[in-house]
Structure formats: structure tokens, C-alpha cells
Amino acid sequence: MMKKFLYGGISAVGLLLAFEAAADQSVEKNYADFCAACHGAERLGGAGTALLPENLARLRRPDAFKTIAEGRNASQMPSFADKLAKEEIQALVDFIYKPLPEVPAWGANEINASHQQHVPSGSLPDKPVFSADPLNLFVVVELGDHHATILDGDKFEPIYRFKTRFALHGGPKFSPGGRFVYFASRDGWISKFDIYNLKVVAEIRAGINTRNLAVSGDGKTVLVGNYLPHSLVLLSAEDLSLIKMIPVVGQDGKSSRVSAVYQAEPRGSFVAALKDAKEVWEIPYGGEDFNVRRIATDDYLDDFFFDQAYRHMIGAARDGKKGLVIDLNSGRKVAVLDLPGMPHLGSGITWEYQGKPVMATPNLKEPVVSVIDMTTWNTIKQIKTLGGGFFMRSHENSPYAWTDGFNSTDNRDVMHIIDKRTLELVKVLRPIPGKTAAHVEFTRDGKYVLISIWEDDGALLIYDATTLEEVKRLPMKKPSGKYNVYNKIMRSAGTSH
Ligand code: HEC
């Protein structure tokens, strides 16, 4: 409505002026004059965000228009409605969604130049400045205003809230003892946060558009997977200094984006999934050279799950109808899984069912949870739900698995509770009717469940994991995910790692 009011009734004189302005001010010139100071001459970012189609994938064009015209509250993004005509703003919108003519360079020089060590390593005390159990903390990512909250997981009280880099991406990852947490942002910034001292200690920009990061099981190395440029970046976990940049090029000589990186602690390696090559890369992290082992796959694989021993890797095929099981020792495909509706394997979980290990995964496009016997790789049940789900969680101490309806149209506000002993859907909660509910995480002991109300003025809801009743509500700004230190560092079977 607002926009219409501002621009709908533009006068003939206004239009004429606008056209004149548009004629002598090319979009490139406008960009250089009004935007480059903050967003970078090459649109790679600076004080402002990177303005590239890859980075703007989640921002709709009308929202980009509105952002440029009206600015963003509580940020440095100014409004340009009084400086630029409607057509000029539209031209800028079209301009920023155009890919750069070639993949921009972000190599060792650029990465090294971005390195910031805010606090010398080892200079802060090895003891928490708070009294809460440091292993039962949650790191809550609040995407709504780009903050993170450190939450006491016993009292459910925030300990500290701080500004993060713009648009964190992929889950944050903990150091093996849980003292440090590493964040990756959409625009490639990696930040190391000292939880004991509540301080960001080091940062580096590892790429221009980043998928996620992984921390090695020995706590020494961080691996970052990028979309732009096509690279893997190894950093020292100590101070985030660059160890090595690995250009990602498939056997066929074509470069590829990285869809995700993982750490496989029992194997002493990192695993990287490539988006544009039928390959998976394994990189042992124990030595100095970080050589790549290539594993050829039958298909492009997008999203992965590992068994608890990291012997098998289950990848979702691009067509969204099946999963491939690959034995990481032999590098061979050992089974094909029947997964009907684009499984979200990254959030799959495992447990024991009738004496056998099973895995369960929500499907993004079908309202079912697939349960698969991991000894035969057969689907033993498709549990019907009210909508395609995104996240699934449980805990060793709980008989229930929780999954959302995030990807449905009408049931984004539900939480499904599945009994792991019977594979039956036993209850459907609607925590706040009409508000999107997503991403569940259990406390360290499995007694409580934290649910996100995924809205700008959202909340964390805390449920008793046994009675399934709400016990507390904390307001939060679009809390996209929450990560329990203990469950993550112990690689609980009920959560992704
Ligand atoms: C003084 C610095 C500054 C200037 C000048 C500036 N921006 Fe921004 N811009 C920002 C910041 C900071 C943000 C991030 C805002 C936030 O936190 O939501 C931003 C956000 C944006 C976004 C939203 C990006 C996203 O991913 O949500 C767009 C689009 C944008 N700016 C376009 C422009 C254009 C086009 C111009 C020039 C006409 C411009 N900006 C000028 C600082 C600036």
C-alpha cells in the first residue's frame, strides 16, 4: 500500500523528470555513485551486503525495490526514494540480480586481507564468566535482526545477545569441548565466538557466497564450502588464519559449487558435497597436506546424511525421488533408497527400532516421514503427516521424534510428534495457530524441547518432552535455529551434527 501511495500517483512532470534523470544517469553510474561505497564496486559487499543473484536468492525483487526506496530500519541501509526515480530504482534492482560476467576472484590474497583477530588467541580465561552449565547452553540464531542469543538450557534465560554477521547460513559448529562456536554468513564471513568469555575473537571472509562450515573432530581445522567462488577453504580453528584454498574442479575439468561440507570424526576426515559434479570429496584432516580423495557418484547429490559410524553416506539425488547409499570405505554405491518427495536428509535422525538401527527423514514435497532400516536399506514405513517437513529431531532419552510442517501451505504452524517405538503419529501440536513452527532441539538431558516460532516477532517455546505441554515462552526475532552444546558435541543420534 505504502509503495503505491508513494509512486502510484506520480505526476506527468515527475515522470518527465524521472526519464530525463534516467537518460543521463546510467544504472552503472547510479550504482557507483550511490551504492558502491557500502556494497563494493564489484557488488561483493563491504559495510553493506554482497549484491549478487546468488546472495539475493531469498530476497524477492519487490522487496529489494522496497529496501532501496525506503531503506532498512535499524541498519545503515539508507532510503533512496528522494534521490532516485522509480525507474532508476527498478534499473538498480535488475542490475543487482544480474550475474557478474565471470566468477569473481576471492583467493588467498583477498581472504588474508580480510582476516581480523579481535583478541589474541589464548589470552582469555578458560573459565565461563557465567554460572550456567556450559554444556547445556543453546546458541539461538535470530535471523530477524541478525543476532545470536546464548541461552541457559536449565533456566531458559538468555545469558547474552550479540550482533552477528548478516544472514548466517548453515548451522553454527562447536569446538570439541564446546567452548567456541563458529558461524558462517551468507556473504562468506566466518566468525569464531568464545562462549566462555562472550566475545567474537576472530573473523575472516572465506568466500563471497558461502554454504556452511565444518570443524574437524580434533578441533584444529575449519573447512568452509563456497558457492562463490567455487572453492573449499581450510582455516586454522585457532585464529581462523588461512591454511589453504582448494579450487573445486571435477574430474571433467568443470568447476563446481559446493553444496555442503561435513566432518566425519570417526574417519578423521571432512566430506564435501559438490553441486555441479557427480563426485563427493573426502579430505583427511590429520596431516598437513589435506589431499582430496574423489569418490565418483551416479548422480548429482545435494543433501547428505551419515550413519552414526560415518561408514555410510546417504545422499539425495537431484531428481528428488531417491537416495543413494555410498560406502565411504569402498567408495561404492551399496543401495538405492525409495524417498518419494525430496527428502531433507540433512536433518535426518537415527534410533533403534526393534533391535535395528533405523533412520528417518522428512520429505520437503510430500507429507510423509520416511523410516528406513539401515541394515537392509528398505523403507519400513512412510508416516503420514499434515505437510512436507523440514526439520526432524529427537533425543536418546525421549521416545518421541518431532517434525514440522514447514514446507506445507496450510499447516506451517504444526508440530508432529511420532512415537519412535511404534512409528505412529501420536499427536499434532499447533503451538501458535497461524504462525510458522520449525526447528526443534532438545535439552542436554532430553527432558525439554525448544521450538522456534519462525516469524520476525517470533518466539522460542519450551515444551516438557514427556507431558508435551508448553512450560515457557521467550520472545525472539525469527529464531531460525538453536543448537545445544552437549547434543552437538556428543553427536546425539537425535540431531544433525
Ligand atoms: C551507507 C551504506 C549503504 C549504502 C550507501 C547503500 N546500502 Fe544497501 N545496505 C546497506 C546495509 C548495511 C544493508 C543491510 C541491511 C540490513 O541489516 O538489513 C543493506 C541492504 C541492502 C539490500 C538488501 C540486501 C539483502 O540481502 O537483504 C539491498 C537490495 C540494497 N542494500 C541495495 C542498495 C542499493 C541498490 C544501494 C544504492 C542505491 C544501496 N543499497 C546503498 C548499506 C548501504
In short:
The chain has helices at residues 2-7, 12-24, 27-39, 61-70, 86-96, 108-114, 485-489; strands at 116-117, 137-142, 147-152, 157-163, 173-174, 180-184, 189-194, 199-205, 209-215, 221-228, 231-236, 242-247, 258-264, 269-274, 279-284, 293-296, 301-306, 312-317, 322-327, 332-338, 349-353, 356-362, 368-373, 379-384, 392-393, 400-404, 415-419, 424-429, 437-442, 448-453, 458-464, 470-476, 479-484. It is mainly beta and 497 residues long.
List keywords for this structure.
single chain, mainly beta, Cytochrome Bc1 Complex, Chain D, domain 2, five-stranded antiparallel sheet, four-stranded antiparallel sheet, 38% strand, globular, disordered N terminus
List the helices and strands and how they pair.
Layout: H1 2-7, H2 12-24, H3 27-39, H4 61-70, H5 86-96, H6 108-114, E1 116-117, E2 137-142, E3 147-152, E4 157-163, E5 173-174, E6 180-184, E7 189-194, E8 199-205, E9 209-215, E10 221-228, E11 231-236, E12 242-247, E13 258-264, E14 269-274, E15 279-284, E16 293-296, E17 301-306, E18 312-317, E19 322-327, E20 332-338, E21 349-353, E22 356-362, E23 368-373, E24 379-384, E25 392-393, E26 400-404, E27 415-419, E28 424-429, E29 437-442, E30 448-453, E31 458-464, E32 470-476, E33 479-484, H7 485-489
Antiparallel strand pairs: 1-8, 2-3, 2-33, 3-4, 5-6, 6-7, 7-8, 9-10, 10-11, 11-12, 13-14, 14-15, 15-16, 17-18, 18-19, 19-20, 21-22, 22-23, 23-24, 25-26, 26-27, 27-28, 29-30, 30-31, 31-32
Bound molecules: heme C.
